Amino acid sequence: MHVRARRSYYEGHLPESELAEWEAAARSRGYTFAGADLIWLCAELDGRIAGFALATDAGELLQLQVDPARWEHGVGDALHRACVEAWRGRGVSTAHLDVFEPNTRAREFYRRRGWREVGLSDGEPVHVRMALAL
């Protein structure tokens, strides 16, 4: 699911060889995140994983991925609301995230939920830094 979602916004913006290399690595070993300060959320529709979110207790949204086949089904919105509720419960006043600059769909998704663009990353590929007052 993560590979399909990631390809949907990087395809056409990154070389195919780079996408293929990342996908092979993701399928063979997956990601490893450890730490007590992480919030893991998973959304399910019809008995299948439809999306997931990974955030820190401090208010950093690391991942919010929805299976492209499940876009426009409320999955992203539900995951986003759950992150916001978790941060508020932990006393976070401002949340942050980075989104791939050409990913206008995601940037608009966050804008509609109150996020504002506050800067750009220095590296390549360029990401937009966004913040949300909680």
General description of the model:
With 134 residues, this protein is of the alpha+beta class. The chain has one domain (35-133): 3-Layer(aba) Sandwich (Aminopeptidase), CATH 3.40.630. Helices cover 35% and strands 32% of the residues. The protein has four helices and six strands; from the N terminus they run H-H-E-E-E-H-E-H-E-E. The chain has helices spanning 2-10, 16-29, 75-89, 104-112; strands at 38-45, 48-56, 60-66, 94-100, 116-120, 127-133. Strand 1 (38-45) and strand 2 form a beta hairpin. It starts with a helix and ends with a strand. InterPro entries: Acyl_CoA_acyltransferase, Bact_Acetyltransf, GNAT_dom. One of its GO terms (molecular function) is acyltransferase activity, transferring groups other than amino-acyl groups.
The CATH superfamily bears the name Gcn5-related N-acetyltransferase (GNAT)
Structural class: alpha+beta
Rg estimate, integer Å: 15 Å
List SSEs in N-to-C order. Answer: HHEEEHEHEE
> What is the annotated CATH architecture?
3-Layer(aba) Sandwich
Helix count, DSSP H or I runs of 4 or more residues: 4
Strand order of the largest sheet: 1-2-3-4-6-5
Q: Which regions are unreliable across 5 or more consecutive residues at pLDDT < 50?
A: none
Helix content: 25-40%
Name some characteristics of this structure:
134 residues; transferase; globular; 6-stranded mixed β-sheet; Aminopeptidase; N-acetyltransferase domain-containing protein; acyltransferase activity, transferring groups other than amino-acyl groups; alpha+beta; 32% strand
